[in-house]
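Database export, one record per block. Field names are fixed; values are copied verbatim from the stored entry.
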Amino acid sequence: MLGKIKNLIKNSPLFPLVRPVSDKLIGFRPTDERCWEIILDYAKKFNVKCLIETGTHLGRTVDALKNNFTLIYSVELDEILAKKAQEKFRSEPHIKIIWGDSAVILPQILPLIGESKILFWLDAHYSMGVTALGNSITPIITELKNIFKINKEVVILIDDARDFSWYNVVF
């Protein structure tokens, strides 16, 4: 199964966009600020105004990038974290914080997005501490399958991809 998904990703026209970030991030943990710079670099390079983040956590990425996108969706599995982020961004009409499993939520929200280009920051995974554990340690494979189904231009950035060998996820 993973071999089929690996081939799907490698044969996708999106792979050249996914690979450079993965290669840059493997082996070390960049600061949040560096991750935000990478997101903004890709948004600018591909003229993307819509950000979808999976794994809201404390809302720091949304907060750091809120003035750089016209539409932001962030999906958080932990109910308490999601509610705190919803409260934090309630006065920002272009920011939508959604509580739920990104593997389930993405197919529901993707058809609603009118933007022709979307930048995805995929960061939904269990990492102990203040994070939630869903049906799997990481929903990355399902997230990617759902993204590949849409008919839009997308940029996919995957945070913490270097950790996926721990989760038995191989690309």
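Remark 1: Confidence is low (pLDDT under 50) at residues 22-26.
Remark 2: The longest strand covers residues 71-76.
End of record.
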